[in-house]
Amino acid sequence: MTKPTLNQIAADPSCMDDYDPNAMSVAQARQFIKQFLSPVIETETLPVMQSLGRVLATDIVSPSNVPNHNNSAMDGFAFKYSDHIKTLKVIGTAFAGKAFAGNVGAGECVKIMTGAVIPKGADTVVMQERIAIKSDRITLLEDPKLGANVRLAGEDLKLGQTVLAKGHIMHPAGLGLIASLGIGEVSVYRPLKVAFFSTGDELISVGKPLETGQIYDSNRYTLFGMLTRLGAAISDLGVVPDKPDLLEVTLLKAASENDVVITSGGVSVGEADFMKALLAKHGQVLFWKINMKPGRPLAYGKVGASHYFGLPGNPVSAMVTFYQFVREALLTLQGTTPKPLPIFKVECTEAIKKATGRMEFQRGVLFDDVGVWKVKPMPNQGSGVLSSMSAANCFIVLDETVGNCTAGEMVNVQILEGII
Ligand code: AMP
Ligand code: MG
After folding, report:
1. Which ligand places an atom closest to the C-alpha of 263?
2. Residue 2 pLDDT > 80
């Protein structure tokens, strides 16, 4: 049977077996979104330093061996290994960047600096601390091993080797690696164009005074931060009140000019259903109740050629759903294959109340307890309490099967900040 299209599922959810928009697991929702993602194909060529955070559009193949020559890993003396010669005549010096031109014969050696090319005839280096020297002769104080302290040509990278594959995200080490090959420019995919706006009559933008019942819009700020970290080319379309005509104009303009549109608020069940009606009119959008906390309502689909994500309005929920669904989808759209974020177990210092049957992403603080890393949950886990998200450095990831946890139990955590 051919797979139903997004359009068919949006129009009639019952066309799919095992699909219940009111009871989606986190894993199912991720899988669902994945099948509709088509990565960008346009590329651009950038100087290596400017490619930080971007996705490689071609393999990087090594045009040479790195290092190019056998060279010394130590300051010492280079000689031809022999079982029985223990005293050697010093016939010259090899510097890094200035090789010794001659040949090293039996019973001879060359003083050599770290990084200098191993001279012809030599195959082993003895550290300068392991010899005794008297005028132009050295005596080996211990038996070196054949090939000791020699870095071999190509031991880092070999000529013709694929050093970084298409789809690799450029990190600091990658920049250095490419430079070590003498390559100055790389081909990367163009940045994703992502537009976002907040919906809600109660929302006010920073800079205006609040009246009773109004709140400042914070979701656009967290979205700005998360999207910028992902390297997206962003358009901030501001706050749009719950007015169908304004929402419609903004949505259509955003979708026609961007690869992705993200909105927050207005996708909960029982809301003034403007977004829902608009999305049904102009796109193919699925509305889910996800078995997770926080962040139950989530909408995903397409409006024209643009991907659409409707995040919950609650500030913590918006961030959690972004990290758990949108981040991975955007990475895929950028041309890379996202790897699951590392999850590891640590002891939780406090009891946690939790019902089985849904996945929870609680906010916690990982801390060093005299050499052992432990996690303490934030005291207020409310989905509107952004201060808990800001003070946290990890999610405590409790899957569907986990119930109440006692203090001292091991729990899964996911770090919020990457090293690179
Ligand atoms: P909604 O998903 O529109 O029902 O919103 C859920 C809750 O999140 C409500 O309390 C909203 O006031 C709040 N909220 C919605 N959007 C934002 C936003 N952009 N910034 C801060 N709070 C918001
Ligand atoms: Mg709202």
Report:
1. 1
2. no
Report which ligand 1 atom has the smallest distance to the Cα of 312. Answer: 2
Q: From the CA of 268, which ligand is nearest? A: 1
Query: Ligand 1 site: residues with CB under 6 angstroms?
Result: 198, 200, 202-203, 215, 217-219, 264-266, 268, 271, 312-315
* Phi, psi values for residue 406, rounded to 5°: -95, 160
Beta bridge partners of 394: 364, 415
Identify the band that residue 364 occupies on the pLDDT scale cut at 50, 70 and 90.
very high
Atom of ligand 1 nearest to the CA of 199: 16
Mean pLDDT over 384-393 rounds to: 96
What does the DSSP assignment read for 329-373?
HHHHHTT--PPPPP-EEEEESS-B---TTSEEEEEEEEEEETTEE
Q: Which residue has the CA at smallest separation from atom 14 of ligand 1? A: 313
- pLDDT value at 325 more than 70: yes
Residues 233, 263: contact at Cβ < 8 Å?
no
Q: Which ligand is nearest to the CA of 219?
A: 1
Average pLDDT along the chain: 95
201 alpha carbon – ligand 1 mean position (Å): 10
DSSP letter at 55 equals: B
216 CA distance to ligand 1 centroid (A)? Answer: 10
Q: Mind listing the domains of the chain with CATH numbers?
A: 6-41+191-333 (3.40.980.10), 43-65+155-189 (3.90.105.10), 71-151 (2.170.190.11), 344-415 (2.40.340.10)
Q: How far is the CA of 294 from the centre of ligand 2 (A)?
A: 16
Model pLDDT, residue 16: 85
Which tokens belong to 99? Answer: 């090789």
Q: Give the pLDDT of residue 62.
A: 96
The mean pLDDT of 128-133, rounded to a whole number, is 96
